[in-house]
Write a structure and sequence with these properties.
The chain contains three helices and ten strands; from the N terminus they run H-E-E-E-E-E-H-E-E-E-E-H-E. The protein is α+β, with helices and mostly antiparallel strands. Strand 3 (about 65-70) and strand 4 (about 75-85) form a beta hairpin.
Length: about 190
């Protein structure tokens, strides 16, 4: 029994498979270049390593950002560092909390506190994956007590006995969508020993 092959159909199929391979590989290259361009565009391309809790945690922040450690009398806050860009357009902090509290409960508690202090708009919380880790990301706009408007990006991650929160607050009229790529790069750089 002879197998009859339609050469035109086989040729078109091989061309389509080849194009799919080219598109897939170029997509990965484009993602890397896009990330680099976004970091350069937001003046966050040169990062420095920050270590905390006696070297147990590390993460990267833009080299030119001001960083200030804070100590709290509350024993559940193991680490808290505030950071801001040189022009003060971006402010934020990282906190590491001890305890087994569910991330969803931490987000709800923060949301209630936030709404009791500020006028909050467009609040959304959703799950994403970063470095194979489940992250709860929160976005919202708020007006400070001085009537300044900000766009907020917050990331909550659970590590065994710790909850980690990164927060970024950007002056609303200076906010750019590509800043999220830079914020993601900071969060993805986080490591715990």
């Amino acid at each position: 029994m002879k197998l009859k092959v339609n050469r035109k159909q086989l040729g078109v199929t091989l061309i389509l498979i080849g194009l799919m391979i080219v598109l897939f590989s170029s997509q990965k290259i484009f993602e890397i270049r896009f990330k680099e361009a976004a970091l350069i565009n937001t003046d966050m391309s040169v990062m420095k390593v920050i270590k905390g809790i006696e070297g147990k945690i590390n993460y990267k922040l833009p080299e030119n950002w001001e960083v200030k450690d804070r100590k709290y009398p509350d024993d559940t806050i193991l680490y808290h560092t505030e950071y801001k860009s040189p022009d003060s357009v971006i402010n934020g902090y990282i906190s590491v909390f001890e305890g087994n509290e569910d991330v969803n409960k931490a987000v709800e508690k923060d949301k209630k506190l936030l709404q009791s202090i500020y006028a909050v708009k467009d609040y959304t919380a959703y799950r994403i994956t970063m470095n194979k880790r489940d992250v709860l990301k929160v976005q919202y706009d708020f007006k400070s007590q001085k009537s300044e408007e900000y766009t907020a990006q917050e990331y909550y991650m659970k590590y065994e006995d710790y909850t980690v929160k990164f927060a970024f607050y950007v002056v609303k009229d200076k906010y750019k969508e590509n800043m999220v790529v830079a914020f993601n790069a900071v969060v993805e750089s986080f490591g715990i020993k």
